[in-house]
Predict the 3D structure of the following.
Amino acid sequence: MSLVLVPMSGPDYDRRTAALRRRYAANLQQQRGMSGADAEAEAVRQMELVLPGGLDTEWAILRSAQVDGEKVGWVWATLPGAPGRPEMAWLHNIDVDPEHQSQGYGRAMILAVEEELRRLGVTRFGLNVFGGNTRAIALYESLGFTVMAQQMSKPLG
């Protein structure tokens, strides 16, 4: 496996961020109990805050992951100083396309973006993960990420 990260194209960005907004809104509904309309509005608001210039946002690292010239997923990170995370670089999203999952590409993508961040002089890298995403949590922990804070809730019926 020779995974490489390449700059994301406009059409790939449009397709992948639209899918991400839909998934994020669904997670907000499920995990935070938001209505569909409120979750969609919040997903749009947050993405516009962190990606105001879309693909050309200066602090964003948006990369397609390729193996032997075939796209297998994408990763989105921001540099320190971006809105909401001024103290460290932040992993906003990593997706391995369904047909390429369970082949080590997620791990390889994170390691590749970490290397890019190191070359840029970044010394700290953070992320957020929904509590029910046990597969991602296991991957992040195996890569050395540790819990900095934890939010909890329960429904009051």
